[in-house]
Every structure is written in C-alpha cells, then in structure tokens.
Design brief:
Order of helices and strands: HEEEEEHHEEEEE
Strand content: 15-25%
Helix content: 10-25%
Oligomer: single chain
Largest sheet: 5 strands, antiparallel
Distance between the termini: 22 Å
Amino acid sequence: MRSLSFRVTHLVSALVVLGGCERQEKPPAPAPAPVKASAPAPAPVAPSRSSTEAELRERLRCEALLGFSGLLAGQQEFFGEKDAWTADVTRLPSPAPCTDGSRVPTPDATWLAGCHFRYAVSVAGSAPDNSTFSVRAVGVGGLAEGLTYTLTHGYVDRQPVRVWPSELVLEECHGVRRPEGTPLPAPLCEGASNLKAFFASQKAYFGEKDRYSESAAQVGFAPEPCLDGTRAPVPDDTWIAGCRFIYRAEVSGTAPEQTFRLTARGMKGPVVERVLTLDSQYTWSPADPGCAP
C-alpha cells in the first residue's frame, strides 16, 4: 500500500431606511399656531450583511470541503488496493444528501450528487508513479449556483502533489453543521483519533513481535496531513507530524514486559499547547475526549 500522507461574495439584502417629510397645509387662523421643534431626522443606516446568508455561504463551502474530503479518502483506499486512481464514481463514497434526503440533479451517471454540489472525477497520467486524479465540485441552484472548486491529488514524476482550493478551510467549518445535519468533530478530536490509531498499531505490532516500538513507521502509524497537504512542525525526529498535532511514543521496560506512553501535542490553530496522552493500559490524560472513532 502506498502511503498518501503528504502535502497535496455575498449577495445580501440591505435594509434601506427612507427618510421623508409631510407637507402641512396652512392653518385657517390668521396667526399660525406655534410649532414645536421637530426631532432631528435619524441618520441613514448603512446596508449591512445578512448574517443568515453569510452563514449559508459558509455552510456551502464546508459542504464542498467535506465532499472533497470523503472522495479523497475513497481514492486513497482504492489506490491502496489497486495502485491506481479511479474515475468510476460507483467505486467512491457518495457525498451527503440534504437533511430531507434530497440531492442536486446530475447530467449523467458520471457525476456524484450531494446536497448543493455535484462532483465530477477524472484521472490523468500513468499509474502508479505519474498519475493524478481531480475532483470538480459544481454548485447547483440558489446561493450555490456558480460556485466551482477543484481538488487535484496524486503523483507527478514520482513526487507527491496535492492542489487544494484555498477557499476551503477546515478550521472555519468546526461548529458548522454538515448537509445531513451533524456537526463536524471538534479540532481536539484529530489528536484523540490519531492516538487511538497509534495505540492500535502498537498493540498489533506487539502481537507480531512481542515488543513495542518508539518508531511510528515501524508500527505502521502514519497520521494524515491537513487537507491542503501541510503538516505541523516537529521539534526533532522522535515526533511524527499530522495536521495540527504531532505524536510520539515512549517505551519502557524490557520485551516482552514493556509498557508505552503515547503523546499528542497540539502545534497550531485552536489546539496549540493542548496535550493528550494514552498509555498501554488505555489510560487517558486528561480524560478521553469522547470523540467518535
């Protein structure tokens, strides 16, 4: 299996305040009645953005991001089995529908349909070392109409490449609900989920070798980078980098009577300086954040 852990406008309504005055008829009495001074007219209100529409546009961007993320994972799984990318959309996961189960229409069976976007997949080059796949997300209807994003991932001349749309930023999507209505996991869950994977890798390695290892590569633990291909910085080679977190294993004792302690340290974004640990007895510190596997 080849490891793919590497680098790869608002139309708003405005509230318009119209100021005016009434023309008063002259009173019939020869002397005009005293007129009380009127209050000054209110200052005009500048048009403001609709927070509702801004939120909807943010959700659209996050929907496209999640669609790309799912298709990227599907392509990676397929490549791990076949050493090739696929343009057959039936072999890839379908993007989430809307909460009512509806999806946008597609021109033909070569497209995948999500809630507000449809996705086209193409493959270029010769597998496995000089091939890429691209996914194009096209918005359909309403605020999504006209929105287009493209992801490209793979190898060029045996070098890994990933081109990710700069408008789609994962940090902006936490707390935003998916099209199917469920929220994204908290940023801390990246570290927790990877610690669970690291734990499983250590236990599997022990089952084969009767020992643990401080080498993530040796036990087969390879955390994914950020969606745009970047990784957190590491202080030295005892750490391995994921997206926002870095990871390390410390092994104590003599095989086979060994224990280990795994550490995830937040290095950027909202998890800077957050530290999670998990030991060989599955003891968390602090407590297990409760993230889904």
